[in-house]
Design goal:
By secondary structure, the protein is an alpha+beta fold. It folds into two domains: about 150 residues, Rossmann fold, CATH 3.40.50; about 90 residues, TonB (TolA/TonB C-terminal domain, 2-Layer Sandwich), CATH 3.30.2420.10. About 40% of the residues lie in helices and about 30% in strands. The N and C termini lie far apart (about 80 Å).
């Protein structure tokens, strides 16, 4: 009896280990840039090659073609619905978008120089959320040296990116159902004079980050806010993301506001609302 018990435990342990192994190797990703340039291709090739030791990489050229087929206007500023559609046609668990560029700049310190940068967007195909954003930057007097740094850095960041992908994949698997969440105000409610949608008592403006300003980012960030009957924020979700710290800026300012809850005929209601914030760089002369 004791021998059988140990044997049974052994079988269970092997089964669990096998299941874990399958899950660990099930993460299918791809790496591509919506702007198909030689510089981006070189960076993506190294990054994908380095990630392939831990993850299953889907052919970037096929992913690029599939992505282009759905004609997303702003690939670095997608809504979660657009990102889910992109992930569906690409056929991966997550996908990595890169924005790789080199710009000639001038400053008092360096005069003319070149700045190479690679913005990295890790996106969940299941939720459409931006699960990770980071940027690599290098300034050199020589353009080739600046670009060579990015290619070298691509392999150095792969281990951390692989951990991010695995963590996001596990989070997706354990994601709770959205059933039971308070609804958005309906069209009928919006027209009903007895209904009042939730609104903030104090309207605050999110900060346009220094990083966004430096790169001249123009983007829209949408956030879904869940507000209970007491006017407390229960949860927030970025529904259109942008990177460059703008998503965090929006979430911070929304959670800093005090809210009046929704109300119908004097009864307080739990509701969700979608807020939209537009960001654009304003030049010193006031031009956008």
């Amino acid at each position: 009896m004791n021998t059988c018990f140990k044997h049974g435990n052994f079988v269970v342990a092997v089964a669990i280990a096998a299941l874990f192994t399958v899950a660990a190797h099930a993460q299918r990703i791809t790496v591509f840039s919506p702007e198909d340039t030689a510089q981006a291709a070189a960076f993506n090739e190294v990054l994908a090659g380095s990630l392939s030791t831990d993850l299953k990489i889907i052919d970037p050229s096929l992913a690029y073609s599939a992505f282009r087929s759905i004609e997303i206007a702003a690939p670095f500023n997608m809504s979660t619905a657009e990102a889910r559609s992109a992930g569906g046609v690409i056929g991966t668990d997550l996908f990595i978008l890169t924005d790789v560029r080199t710009q000639r700049r001038t400053s008092f310190a360096l005069k003319e120089h070149f700045e190479a940068s690679a913005a990295i967007y890790v996106v969940s195909s299941r939720s459409g959320e931006l699960v990770h954003w980071s940027i690599l930057r290098r300034t050199e007097r020589n353009e080739d040296q600046a670009e060579a740094f990015l290619v070298k850095a691509a392999s150095e960041i792969s281990a951390d990116l692989a951990k991010t992908v695995r963590s996001a994949y596990e989070h997706d698997l354990n994601r709770k159902s959205t059933m039971g969440l308070p609804p958005f105000p309906t069209d009928a409610e919006e027209k009903d004079p007895a209904f009042r949608a939730p609104i903030p008592y104090n309207r605050l403006r999110p900060k346009y980050t220094q990083l966004a300003d430096f790169f001249g980012v123009r983007a829209t960030v949408d956030i879904i806010v869940e507000i209970n009957a007491a006017g407390n924020i229960i949860n927030t979700q970025i529904d259109r993301w942008a990177g460059y710290g703008l998503d965090e800026s929006v979430e911070h300012v929304v959670r800093s506001m005090n809210w009046r809850p929704a109300e119908r005929n004097g009864t307080k209601l739990a509701k969700r609302v979608l807020l939209r914030y537009n960001f654009t760089k304003v030049d010193p002369d006031g031009q956008r």
